[in-house]
Amino acid sequence: MQVANTGSSVKTSKAGQTPVRAATPVLRKTGKLAPTVKATPTTRVQAKVKAPGRKTAPAKAVKPTPASAAKPPKLKLVRDSFTIPRNEYAVLDALKDRLVDVKRPAKKSEVLRAGIALLATLSDVALLAALEAVPAIKTGRPKKAK
């Protein structure tokens, strides 16, 4: 169905009720480009109106999920940086290599988190002994080697 043509290309919507302008501008008799007209909120609403006699699909029933099947909340991650002596970093790499040998590759962060979990299980006396075995280092970024 076409509406009266006034020099610009005009088509009707699918429902056949609302005229909608073409997406590309058309040359008028004056030789200038026709301004494009955006659909107004009323034309959008009219286009969405259900045609009489047309049936809509029934709404799908939403099944409630049991509390046990609900997903656990996402953990919030914290990004941090620290300084570690080169020889202890080599031990970290050696642990990663051992994990590859036992068919369980792991990232550095996983190895460090496993170490933290093990430290958390120690008694106070054992934790102090483990901490005393590690030498203290200066905090902050190391100076660049020349």
The description of the largest β-sheet is: 2 strands, antiparallel
Helix content: 25-40%
Shape by Cα distribution = elongated
Uncertain runs: none
- The tally of beta strands, per DSSP, is 2
* Number of helices in the DSSP assignment: 4
Report the radius of gyration as a whole number of Å. Answer: 35 Å
**Mean of pLDDT:** 75
Order of helices and strands: EEHHHH
- Strand order across the largest sheet: 1-2
Structural class: mainly alpha
Concise summary:
This protein is mainly α and 146 residues long. The chain is 32% helix and 4% strand. The chain is elongated, with a radius of gyration of 35 Å.
What does this structure look like?
The chain has 146 residues and is mainly alpha-helical. It has a domain of 47 residues. 32% of the residues lie in helices and 4% in strands. The chain contains four helices and two strands. A two-stranded antiparallel ribbon has the order 1-2. A hairpin with a 6-residue loop joins strand 1 and strand 2. The chain is elongated. The mean pLDDT is 75.
Label this structure with key terms:
two-stranded antiparallel ribbon; mainly alpha; 32% helix; 4 helices; 146 residues
Give me the secondary-structure topology.
Elements: E1 10-12, E2 19-21, H1 41-48, H2 86-101, H3 108-121, H4 124-132
Antiparallel strand pairs: 1-2
